[in-house]
Amino acid sequence: MNYFDDKIKDILISEEEIKAKVKELGERITADYKDSGRELIVVSILRGSLVFAADLIRETNMPITLDTMVVSSYGEATKSSGVVKINKDLEEDIVGKDVLIVEDIVDTGLTLAYLKKNLMARDPHSVKVCTFLEKPDRKEVEVEIEYCGFSIPDEFVVGYGLDFSQRFRNYPGVASLKPEAYM
Ligand code: 5GP
Q: Which CATH number fits domain 14-154: 1.20.1600.10, 3.40.50.2020, 3.20.20.240, 3.40.50.11480?
């Protein structure tokens, strides 16, 4: 019996689809940055993008530096306020470097808008964004996203790093949950 079987409602994206998409993104990133002559700092936003970032960097074929940030949004748990608290900052100095923010999902875009502004203020050469998922229907602020895995409808999803109450990050696809799974 698979632990997830009776908890998953619909599988929105399969493990195979993810694998193919991550490979494609890794190849695009490599093509775009490999001849830049600058250091590329890949910034994984924890904890949600951990699984995506781990797979993505292994599909790149060039030198990269991996760094991480932990951020949390002030306000209600289910609603992004746009005011972001940095719980763990970068280890690296990013002055004059190319920065690629790796996110799990862009929902309203408020978290990303804050992060991008915060990193831009540190005087890097560039800051671009690679998100695994985006929900276009929920967008509240315009933030440029250079690399996007999948656009999904406005539905709460879990898996491939995304959680509900810290669970389901280890589900290998992207899925919605049955009501019972929220209890
Ligand atoms: P934003 O500031 O773009 O509204 O918030 C993005 C954050 O909201 C994500 O990093 C993630 O933590 C959370 N989030 C938004 N939609 C979902 C979803 O469908 N599933 C999960 N697990 N988290 C989500």
A: 3.40.50.2020
CB-CB contact of 82 with 112 (8 Å): no
In 10 A of CB 170, how many CB atoms? 13
Query: Does the annotation mark 107 as catalytic?
Result: yes
- Whether 156 is in the pocket of ligand 1, judged by its Cβ within 6 Å, is yes
Instruction: Check whether the bond before 47 is cis (ω within 30° of 0).
Output: yes
Catalytic residue from among 6, 107, 137, 154:
107
Each residue of 147-156: b (16+ CB within 10 Å) or e? bbbbebeeee
Of ligand 1's atoms, which has the minimum distance to the CA of residue 82?
Answer: 2
To the question of pTM greater than 0.85 for the whole model, the response is yes
Residue 74 burial (C-beta neighbours within 10 Å; 0-12, 13-18, 19+): exposed
- pLDDT, tens digit, 9 for 90 and up, residues 8-60: 999 999 999 999 999 999 999 999 999 999 999 999 999 999 999 999 999 99
Report which DSSP code applies to 73. E
Element (H, E) at 21: helix 15-33
The answer, yes or no, to whether any atom of ligand 1 lies below 6 A from the CB of 119, is no
Nearest to 152 by CA among 61, 160, 27, 62: 160
